[in-house]
Amino acid sequence: MPILNLNGYKIANPTILSRISSEELENLFKGYGYTPYLVEGSDPETMHQKMATVMEECIVKIREYQSEARSNNKAFRPRWPMIILRTPKGWTGPKDVDGHKVEGFWRAHQVPMGGMHSNPEHVRLLEEWMKDYKPEELFDENGTLIRELKELAPVGIKRMSANPVANGGLLRKDLKLPDFRDYAVTMDKPGTVEVENTRVLGKFLRDVMKKNMTNFRVFGPDETASNRLQDIYEVTKKTWMADYLPEDRDGSQLSPDGRVMEMLSEHTLEGWLETYLLTGRHGFFHTYEAFVHVIDSMFNQHAKWLDICKKHVPWRAPVSSLNLMLSSLVWRQDHNGFSHQDPGFVDLVTNKSADVTRIYFPPDANCLLSVADHCLRSKDYINVIVADKQNHLQYLTMEEAIKHCTKGIGIWEWASNDDCGKAADEPDVVMACCGDIPTTESLAATAILREEFPELKVRFINVVDLYRLQTETEHPHGLSNKEFDILFTPDKPVIFNFHGYPWLIHKLAYRRTNQERIHVRGYKEEGNINTPLELAILNQIDRFNLVIDIIDRVDKLGSKAVYVRERMRNAIIDNLAYAHEEGMDRSEVVNWKWSY
Amino acid sequence: MPILNLNGYKIANPTILSRISSEELENLFKGYGYTPYLVEGSDPETMHQKMATVMEECIVKIREYQSEARSNNKAFRPRWPMIILRTPKGWTGPKDVDGHKVEGFWRAHQVPMGGMHSNPEHVRLLEEWMKDYKPEELFDENGTLIRELKELAPVGIKRMSANPVANGGLLRKDLKLPDFRDYAVTMDKPGTVEVENTRVLGKFLRDVMKKNMTNFRVFGPDETASNRLQDIYEVTKKTWMADYLPEDRDGSQLSPDGRVMEMLSEHTLEGWLETYLLTGRHGFFHTYEAFVHVIDSMFNQHAKWLDICKKHVPWRAPVSSLNLMLSSLVWRQDHNGFSHQDPGFVDLVTNKSADVTRIYFPPDANCLLSVADHCLRSKDYINVIVADKQNHLQYLTMEEAIKHCTKGIGIWEWASNDDCGKAADEPDVVMACCGDIPTTESLAATAILREEFPELKVRFINVVDLYRLQTETEHPHGLSNKEFDILFTPDKPVIFNFHGYPWLIHKLAYRRTNQERIHVRGYKEEGNINTPLELAILNQIDRFNLVIDIIDRVDKLGSKAVYVRERMRNAIIDNLAYAHEEGMDRSEVVNWKWSY
Predict the structure, then answer these.
(1) Which residues are CB-contacts of B297 (< 8 A; sequence separation ≥ 6)?
(2) Is the pLDDT confidence value at A519 over 90?
(3) Surface-to-core class of residue B257, CB atoms within 10 Å of its CB (0-12 exposed, 13-18 middle, 19+ buried)
(4) For chains A and B, what is the number of CB pairs under 8 angstroms?
(5) To bridge B538 with a disulfide, which of A565, B30, B416, B526 should be the other Cys (CB 3.0-4.6 Å)?
């Protein structure tokens, strides 16, 4: 039951709700769906009695609604009671200090009077105020709380601070998880099958839901179907307590006991989810990538809270991780355009403690399943998963995906050609990528290189776990410098194709050997309502620009390189013109497959 | 007058307000302070008439309130009219498609039916729908709109698209600015006088207000006084339209025509400010640094909007810049602690277009005045100013400050000792700093170095304009590589003390010569309720750790360095212990002055 303590003031102003008419105030809370009860006054004795009476009345009302619903076995939305407790700010504190009103005014905020070392009048006021509490009736001559009062306090878990709901990790039970391997996308060859990655995840989440119908919820701002997770509706619907219409039966997926929380307010969802986790349950939040910035500030505070709890509050039991999936990504905003292009949330995440933040970019559906399973089992982290909902090429079998995600970063041997079985083998260039869409473009660039420069040795590296790029001294997932140099070589050019803003990679990798040879492509605020390839080209993460990047950085390619470079420029012009004319990409781009 | 078009649905769900009782809905808008008028129905002819009647009624009501207030010359808060227009979603579109309800249901969102190339039934539906508009009555045989209808359209600035209020740059007049030099802090020597930086700014803003009482407003979440800008109240108060109490006369600074907008909702403030700028006026927004993240998403969208307007919408006249000052900074949260420590907003800003973003870290009050004057004159930018409210040392005379801010980055000769008048002079180390608090610590470290290693040649560089660190190819304010190398040398160690997260500097400077010799200190999420020095030490931006950083990076210091390093470690331990015991810093730290 909400209690609004309307004490009238903030740090330096009256509060709005305390200065509108009582009729407006009552209307507001009725409009929010409540039955407001007003408890108003300033005489402590009377107010304690009033509050107790109204509280009793409200609880009786709540019990009535509950028993009505339970006896009829029919959900309805009661106008739940709420209390507006109208008391003076700084209640029972000094009325005036230095001739200025304090009790019942904004001056009572924080420190009603200072100067305890230097102002005897203030000391006198303080003494008077404290004596008001009649300490001689509360403590004995040794200053100990008298037994009669001490015995009033509840014991054990009845103490507010020891209530397990306030330390939800104590109540938390691990999720019962189906085997994520059962949802695997199968394929004969990498880069040939297309699947909507989050759609596959939806089937897994559906069955997670089915096995955990009392302690798991999915949260999203009106986008569960848009983000392709709609299979969840096969086992539970969206919570809906307001009115129903007959047409809702045809596809609206509403139910009073639905376990999918949809509301077009990311703030409300994040608040619900945090509370749900902190009381010992599990959740999964998904949202459009660009609009997760709406909850930046809430993320910051939750990350700080988790960090302090883990390091400094040993009695607090670990809670489930906050799992946040960003979908409907920057690279696929074909009809929404520039306003929906913002991959910068992960930049913010990397500012928070390495002990509580994790960021994953699964390149395909099997990797997404493996990552999601891992996140749903974990505790005390904020896991950010970036995964798109559109059709994308699939690369790894489930067995390969598990290994790849466990390593977090790895060489894709089938896409590399630098191992020719000779002792002196080393690549001419490292093609690195992170994110589903950049991975496809890097792979397509690799295919062009195989045609044009069969002698060029390319090592293909994919990054799932972004923090692998940091050093081990900065993040527990960081690669040691030795491991990094073995993967990326200490000195060969690296063409890194990244999902987000390119400079984030520099920020993470600035300590690496010869970092200036790491050339990063990513989103740089060049966008509009574009076709996928057009948008990739505008930001230079496309296959053709990547080939140009390599030509410009690998010396040994010889005179042929000049001609290939020219052909790439031509291909860019051609493809932009086609996209502009036709409103879609050429079929050889749309249907491109890996064929080696 | 607000009109809520309650069409009942979003992309995949009913809207809450359309499914609560009409009594609750009415209560809600009464609670918000309005008199709601309901216009409800689905027959277009009747609805047009109803809407016209109600609109007329509302406008008459608004005129009545206005004339009442103007004839009595007394402000009051009327219950302004608002209209709830309840119509079907997809109104007049196809009722059903493929047996599913569309008009008046969420299916009408976006694309009510597709398959125009392949589904003749859908094409038939579309034709029926379009014919419904009776094109034969609207167009002549050539397909031209008939004259009678054409003449109904307004002309000139009565056209909605040509209304100058919708292109506010046309209405914008430059602010009349007092001479900011008149507010200068004077000093005999740098680093000896202390002043509250934003307090000085407050006097300037007060006089900006005085000269522009019709087109300038200051916005802040309940923090104008807390951020030390309260001198503004000498010329105008805070807007307050709700009830007044007699005690408000003693310091509440409320008035119905106040031009300071205070509300504990950063979202509302940012929305107000954007609207104010877009309609041709000027504003200044200030907020606690940690909580500006609340409006990250709004900032992102405004930056995108500005960028598009500047580059692609030539008819749109430039509007005043959005000026955002962050105060109550991470390094001075002595009683608020960890939750109030977050300097990461600027990280977000650097992700947006270089053509619209500017970031300033004035180190003292004179620099703050110079920067603020510049920002208030500018157009079509988002200017972020980071400046603290506490007492800080002052470094530059007004004349020096203007030069320093115009350059954006500069050597402070009085704090440097690398110029000994010899041709081969070059520094052993570059001490760089950015931000008011880090500047003091860097300077204090420099003082220790002068004592301990008088032969060590230190160049002291301060950064006001953060984007100077990027290359000129990335940001119009970026230094060329040549300029950068002249300032920082191409190869000497740089100890960069930064206000924000340290890796932001690496992100900006990753293209610089030998960037790995740039060693950055900054906030790294180590905080609590600490004294200023304690917090600085925990994050290693303090004078003692900076000296250690230099010892560890400059080889030539010899065996003495080992002993100095040890003394620095001892000083750290001593000062932490003192802060912990006493709850404050040692007086030699609090009262430290530059004495060279």
Answers:
(1) A291, A293, A294, A296
(2) yes
(3) exposed
(4) 196
(5) B526
Say what the alpha-carbon torsion angle A268, A270, A276, A277 is, to the nearest 10 degrees: -170
H and E: helices and strands count for chain B: 18, 20
C-alpha torsion A557→A561→A562→A565, nearest 10: -140
Three-class DSSP labels, A276-301: HHHCCCEEEEEEEHHHHHHHHHHHHH
Long-range pairs, A488-492, Cβ under 8 A, ≥24: A488/A430, A488/A432, A488/A461, A488/A512, A488/A518, A489/A426, A489/A427, A489/A430, A489/A459, A490/A514, A491/A517, A492/A426, A492/A427, A492/A428, A492/A429, A492/A430, A492/A517
Is 80 exceeded by the pLDDT of residue A114?
Answer: yes
ipTM score for this prediction: 0.95
- Asked if A344 lies within 8 A of B338 by C-beta distance, the reply is no
- Look up residue A449 and give its two tokens: 């290189």
Q: How many CA atoms lie within 13 A of A179 on its CB side?
A: 5
CA neighbor of B540 nearest in space, from B556, B525, B560: B525
What sections of B279-435 are H helices per DSSP? 296-312, 345-349, 365-377, 398-407
Using the 8-state DSSP alphabet, how is residue A196 labeled? E
- Residue to mutate among B11, B17, B26, B27, with most A CBs inside 10 A, is B27
B520 to chain A nearest CA, in Å? 11
The tokens for A543 are: 């296959």
Q: Token pair of B321, please?
A: 């810049």
Please give the DSSP secondary-structure letter assigned to residue A202: H
Identity of the residue in A26, A297, A347 whose CB atom sits nearest the CB atom of B294:
A297
Tokens linked to A416:
């590399």
Bridge partner list, A366: none
Is-contact A388 A197, C-beta < 8 A? Answer: yes
Beta carbons of B14 and A344 less than 8 Å apart: no
pLDDT of the residue at B83: 98
The 3-state secondary structure of A379-435 reads ECCEEEEECCCCEEECCCCHHHHHHHHHHCEEECHHHCCCCCCCCCCCCCEEEEEEC
Give the whole-angstrom CA distance, residue A423 versus residue A419: 9
What percentage of chain B's residues is helix, strand, coil (to nearest 5)?
45, 15, 40
SS3 B497: strand
Q: What string of DSSP letters covers B414-432?
A: GG-----S-TT---SEEEE
Give the nearest partner residue to B293 out of A296, A338, A353, using CB atoms. A296
Please, what is the Cα angle at B438 between B437 and B442, to 5 degrees?
A: 125
| Over residues A468-488, mean pLDDT | 97
Q: Which H helix or E strand runs over A174?
A: none
Judge: B250–A101 Cβ closer than 8 Å, yes or no: yes
8 Å CB contact of B14 and A242: yes
Per-10-residue mean pLDDT of chain B, 596 residues long, equals: 96 95 97 98 97 98 96 93 97 95 94 90 94 95 95 92 92 98 97 97 98 98 92 97 96 96 97 98 97 98 97 95 97 91 97 98 98 98 97 98 98 94 87 98 98 96 98 96 96 97 95 92 95 97 98 92 97 97 96 95
Confidence at residue A420, expressed as pLDDT on a 0 to 100 scale: 83
SS3 content of chain A, % helix, strand, coil (to 5): 45, 15, 40
Residue labelled with tokens 């990326």: A488
Specify which residues A3 forms β-bridges with.
Answer: A83
Inter-chain residue contact A242 with B19, CB threshold 8 Å: yes
Residue B334 burial (10 A CB sphere; 0-12, 13-18, 19+) = middle
Which of A225, A348, A353 is facing B12, going by the closest CB pair? A225
Cα A460 from Cα A427, distance rounded (Å): 10
Structure confidence by residue, pLDDT tens digits, A269-292: 999 999 999 999 999 999 999 999
B386 phi/psi in degrees, rounded to 5: -110, 115
Helix (H) / strand (E) element for B3: namely strand B3-5
